[in-house]
Amino acid sequence: MDITQSFYDELAPQYDSLFLDWPGAVREQARILEGIFQRCGFDRGARVLDCACGIGTQAIGLAALGYEVTASDLSEGALREARRRAAESGAALRFERADFRALSETFSEHFDFVIAMDNALPHMLTKGELAAAVGSIVERLRPGGLFVASIRDYDSLLKTKPPYSPPYIHKTDRGQRVSFQTWDWTGDSYALTQYMIEDEGQLGVSSFRCEYRALRRAELTELLLAAGCRTADWLFPEETGFYQPIVAARRQSE
Q1: Which of 234, 29, 28, 220 is nearest to 137 (CA)?
Q2: What is the second-level CATH architecture of the domain 3-152+216-251?
Q3: At 87, is the pLDDT very low, low, confident or very high (cuts 50, 70, 90)?
Q4: Short-list 163, 143, 134, 165, CA closest to 152
Q5: 7, 56, 163, 213 from 191: Cα distances, Å
Q6: Contact 244, 153 (CB under 8 A)
């Protein structure tokens, strides 16, 4: 098991603690994604593959809006949590374990949309791995389909390579939750440690470790166009309301 799988397997049961209101975030992120889909000419009849679904933050919300959603992830722990949360919410969607570097090994069909949100692509630590992931994802799009992904604003972060992220402090009825990350840089890559402190009657401290490669927007754009996309447009938080830059890349029509 690689470090990314371990990270999400271990984090999955507590992942929603990173949000003050996870169900609210599910609804809001689905609304944001639907706005992008509609802007690109799609409606709720579209078929969606969330190829890095985690605990279902985007997939469950889109299914609740009426989209036909398939959700996949490499982490068994994340999938287990996503299935449970989907069942509790009443959302109908299909789950599969899949590596987004080799989606055709799991899926034979093509989709109107493939999404990979919340900085999933920078887990690819080499350009070769990233190119394999992008090629695999674009190949699962129908002609004219749309790939939507979000990454951190690494173009800005690489100027200073900060050693940590500002903390999130969530006040709750029982106390507060604090989460923050430390970043240990080596070149354009960094080892991340996610700390979570829960002070809600009983103090609890957890930490989870992973690795990322800082991915510039130009590099991802180049790979998307080389993989068969005819456009790759970047949308920013002030435009979408999402907390990270989003790329919307449309596969060429055949």
Answers
A1: 220
A2: 3-Layer(aba) Sandwich (3.40)
A3: very high
A4: 165
A5: 12, 25, 10, 9
A6: yes
